[in-house]
């Protein structure tokens, strides 16, 4: 992704995060905003902003928060699955993220994310919206917070990602997820 695109994307993402009531907003070198949620942040939120032409979301943006919107976050076979839908239920985005080598995700940066079927040794990323997805994803994500209970069930997550389709310099989708069980 071009440096000018990253800067513009980071600025747009910071505005989205600020709108969600977040505090301590910073921008990491990777262009993904990192933050600590404020006490007024709902138990689950999904915020996103897509550049025009960013497949599969193409110029869309939103701030979906529970309980008005449905946001489900879970792990299955070390793949983080995020399903978010607006309050009508007709607009939805599914995101799947995984660490390289099929190990559990932990706090940290995951650069050079690709579709896990195309690049199994890289961090994995898949985004689906409106039944459309990108088989040739390029992106990166950051896990700011991830917690599991004693049974291994996910109970807390703060993460952000940038995803482009077909090439790293294509229009991008920028998003954040916040979840507390």
Descriptive account of the structure:
With 181 residues, the protein is mostly beta strands. It has one domain. The protein has one helix spanning 3-19, and strands at residues 22-27, 33-37, 44-50, 61-65, 70-76, 79-85, 92-98, 108-114, 124-129, 132-133, 137-148, 154-165, 172-180. The strands form three sheets. Strands 4-3-13-12-11-8 form a six-stranded antiparallel sheet, with helices on one face. Strands 5-6-7-9-10 form a five-stranded antiparallel sheet, with no helix packed on it. The relative contact order is 0.21. The model is unreliable at 1-27 (pLDDT under 50).
List keywords for this structure.
5-stranded antiparallel sheet, mainly beta, 181 residues
Count of beta strands: 13
Please give the domain count.
1
Rg from Cα: 15 Å
Report strand %. Answer: over 45%
Q: State the assembly state of the protein chains.
A: single chain
Cα distance spanning the termini: 34 Å
Helix content: under 10%
Low-confidence stretches: 1-27
Q: What form results from the Cα inertia axes? A: globular
The major sheet is characterized as: 6 strands, antiparallel
Mean pLDDT: 81
Strand order of the largest sheet: 4-3-13-12-11-8
Structural class: mainly beta
- The total count of helices amounts to 1
């Amino acid at each position: 992704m071009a440096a000018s695109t990253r800067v513009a994307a980071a600025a747009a993402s910071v505005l989205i995060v600020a709108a969600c009531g977040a505090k301590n907003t910073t921008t990491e070198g990777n262009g993904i905003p990192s933050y600590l949620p404020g006490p007024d942040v709902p138990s689950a939120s999904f915020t996103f902003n897509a550049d025009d032409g960013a497949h599969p979301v193409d110029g869309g943006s939103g701030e979906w928060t529970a309980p008005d919107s449905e946001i489900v976050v879970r792990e299955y076979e070390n793949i983080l699955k995020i399903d978010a839908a607006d309050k009508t239920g007709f607009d939805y985005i599914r995101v799947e993220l995984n660490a390289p080598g099929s190990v559990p995700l932990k706090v940290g940066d995951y650069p050079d994310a690709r579709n896990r079927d195309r690049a199994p040794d890289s961090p994995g990323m898949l985004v689906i919206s409106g039944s459309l997805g990108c088989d040739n994803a390029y992106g990166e994500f950051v896990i700011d917070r991830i917690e599991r209970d004693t049974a291994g069930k996910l109970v807390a997550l703060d993460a952000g990602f940038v995803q482009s389709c077909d090439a790293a310099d294509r229009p991008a989708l920028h998003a954040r997820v916040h979840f507390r069980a």
